[in-house]
Structures are given as C-alpha cells and as structure tokens.
Amino acid sequence: MPSDAVLYQAAALCLTYPDDDFRARLPLLREAAPQLREFTDHAAVTSPQELAAHYVQVFDFKNRHSLYLSWWRDGDTRRRGMSLVRFKDVYREHGLEFSGEELPDFLPAVLEFAARTGNTDLLTEHRDGLEQLRSRLTDFGTPYACVLDAVCAALPTARAGVRR
Fold first, then answer.
1. Which pLDDT does position 156 carry in this prediction?
2. Nearest CA to 150 among 116, 122, 111, 113?
C-alpha cells in the first residue's frame, strides 16, 4: 500500500461521524498517519459527546462545509446528477460497486477509494472544491482543517488531459 494510501484511509476515517469505532481506532490512526496528529490528538482529549456535536455543527447544518465533492462544482443543480454518475462509473472501472448509505461523492468514500486503488483522479478533479473546503474549515477554526491540509498536501498536481 503506497504511503499516501495510508493517509487517505486515515483521513477518510477522521472525516466520518466520530462513533465508538472511530474512538477505538484513534491510537492506530495517530501512529499510521502522523500528518493527522493535530486532529487525532484533539479527538483523543475531547469527550465523545463534544466531538460528535462539533462534527454535526461543522458538517451537517449548511453546505458551507460540504463533504460532497460534486456540490462544490455543481451546487444543487441538475448537472450534479451527471457528476454523481461519473463517480459511480469511475468506481465500476476499478471493479468496485458503490453501495454506501452516502452519495458516491462523499469525501470519505472518495478517500477510501483512492486508498484502495491508488487512483486519485476524482480527488484531483475536485481539487478546487477541496481547497475551498480546506479554506473554509480553517476560517471556521475547526481541527478538521488539518485533515484537509494533509489531504491537499498529498495530492499530486493535476495532469494534462484530466477531465475537469
């Protein structure tokens, strides 16, 4: 597994709702992805209820911090439906069928896909949205910003010919 794959998988776990499984994985996440230590250290000393409430406050009330990548490019338009189909098509091209409860453009799902396949095309195609999310999380003052900092820093630069 390439070293960035570990980071992408760890970031995926950090960006999902912080349930009991997440708390149990914190020591492993801390060791496996030192780039995320600022966040994992914060999560380790924050009560489960406070961490969960903060996650909801940051990600669930407004699209301003949307974890759905196609939203950053398409907003709530009809065009977004085609973007979601594109995510599913890319998963299928790699022998994976998306069956999650979330939409296929949910950032933790895309990060897990990148970790499993080594394919970062969906992330690089949506780099502008990731950078906007990173900036907004930083401005909001949430520890989740450091997770986006690490993801954005690990992404390769866009290649010529990559669909945008």
1. 82
2. 111
How many Cβ atoms are within 10 Å of 85's Cβ, its own excluded? 12
- C-alpha angle 75-160-153 in degrees, rounded to nearest 5: 65
Q: Which of 144, 125, 122 shows the shortest CA–CA distance to 133?
A: 144
d(CA 26, CA 143): 15
SS3 33: coil
- What is d(CA 60, CA 55) in angstroms, rounded to the nearest whole number? 8
Q: What is the mean pLDDT of residues 136-161?
A: 88
Q: What is the mean pLDDT of the chain?
A: 91
Evaluate if residue 137 carries a pLDDT over 90.
yes
Q: Which of 4, 21, 32, 11 is nearest to 144 (CA)?
A: 11
Measured between alpha carbons, how far is 159 from 59 in angstroms, rounded to an integer? 30
Q: Which tokens belong to 19?
A: 């349930």
Angle between helices 144-154 and 127-140 in degrees, nearest 10? 150
Query: Which among 73, 12, 77 is positioned nearest to 39, based on CA atoms?
Result: 12
- Output the pTM of the full model: 0.90
pLDDT beyond 80 at 62: no
Question: Quick one: CA dihedral 16, 18, 22, 26, positive or negative?
Answer: positive
Cα–chain center distance at 161: 24
